[in-house]
Amino acid sequence: MSINNRTTNIIVVSLLSLMFLQAFFSMIGDSNTMDELAHTPAGYSYLSQKDFRINPEHPPLIKDIAALPLLFLNLDFPKDHPSWTDEVNSQWWLGNEFLFKSGNDPDQIVFWARIPMILILLLLGWFLFKFTKDFFDKETALLVLAIFAFSPTFLAHGRLVTTDIGASLGVIVATYFWLRFLEKPDRKNIILAGIFFGFALLLKFSLVLLIPFFAIITLTKILLSEKKDRLKLSLKYLGSASVAGLIALIFIIWPVYQFHVLNYPPQRQLSDTIDILESSPMGSLKDLCIWMSDKPGIRAIGHYFLGLLMATQRTASGNTVYFMGMVTASSWRYYFPVVYFLKVPLAFHILTLLVLLIGISRIKKSFWTRTKEWIRSHFVEFSMIIFLCVYWAASIMGNLNIGVRHVLPTFPFIYILVSLGTIRIARSIKKEPFKKAFIAILAVLFLWYLWSSLSCFPYYLSYFNELGGGTRGGYKYVVDSNFDWGQDLKRLKKYVEDEKIDKIKVDYFGGSDVEYYLGDKFERFDPKSGPQKGWIAISATLLQGGRGEPIKGFDGPTGYYDWLDRYEPKARAGTSIFIYYIE
Questions:
Q1: What is the C-alpha to C-alpha distance for residues 81 and 455, in angstroms, rounded to an integer?
Q2: Phi, psi of 428 (to 5 degrees)
Q3: How far is residue 170's CA from residue 182's CA, in Å, rounded to a whole number?
Q4: Can you give the residue ranges of every domain in the chain?
């Protein structure tokens, strides 16, 4: 039975309202996280100074949106501080100075910068619903939205000033309008495809992967046509796609970047670019970027190009990371599949497996001989599968293993494909007993999924499923933005006050300032100096990094927290800061 429009709208508003409440009330107790220390001050500097010298390795749009409310707070920006005047891209120093050393209220800044991020999260939910409803049907769209609204991963990162939720929105909006363009390549759809492709490229540099993705599905569309029409269609699509690309570059990316470099002196931009790319292996691309960096008219595009090169280089070089008892500065090819398995609710994994098994069992032997017909009649599903392959392949082959959030842009299409399979299976079951049994299974899985989300409130960032050790045990497998991003420092402050602790040694990983919150109760120490006495608080990321076994070839310090294996933590601040008292 089809759901009427009024009921559909009520369900959509209810789900998005519940998501807002979960996101809002869970973010209030969280401290400033690691990347927010760079992103929030950077966004404020763009709008207040019109100068893009800070954090160019990420496009500006999300940071701009986060910083908009800050323009009404009468903040002091440290434009005379060395981190701004002398250093090159000293984003962490500037961030700490702006938030904690300039007389501003950091909690007020963090609160107001996060509100627009929650609104972007809700916009993503609404557009996810629209995408599914327009290409498929309302019932599937409502199931997708329900899965999205209670996703621990989206709730975790949708409250923070980072680029991952924006990237997810960019993927689904740009894909929506590109598919409309392929369906009907008229002037309106070409312009819209170009506009939203441009905005997507301003959200996160990893979305340049939309280019090969759009190229593959456009070529597929051509190959699906009649042979006699292919040449004409190829020229039409090539010309139209080129126009869309030019619209994205000239009318979206260039003016946005031009605004951001208005007060960025050309000579300073040139020297910063040379300094940043000094060790880059990019060769002629590096030289081109440096050449563009002080040229009137094109230096804005040169700065976009600089960010793209920085993001590419960082993905290739990687980070020192802890993973399943090991520490390395390189990467594991199975990192993202394992983390995805551990961070996504088991109920959703079971539903995915159920849909896959039933779907495979129903594939007719003639399917492989009718692949062309299937793709033609299921082009949207085919396109989503292609995107998953492109983005996951790039993520797995890269060396940046610091969080499931880096594959978050693939989650919406996974939700759609699984929901689509679920609804189609339910509709195809004719015998009433089997239909009731299937619906009962779905109800149990959804209630389990719902409980997985609600039970981890407000610690969404630390969520792991039952096989991953749960919200308090996931740190044993993987840390960083998967578990501990510095979100619990204010909770540590409360613990110190409640327990009337005079001095505590703290080894903190995150985007807040320990001394600002703990004052003279904070005691510095060298974590590599051996066993300590008294009160000690250690972030899970640093604790695990100091206990992991080094992978062959890793020459950094390890094992310096092995001595803590003899002790049980006295408490935890939130989920991520371990508190010890050593006699």
A1: 44
A2: -85, -15
A3: 18
A4: 163-260, 476-582
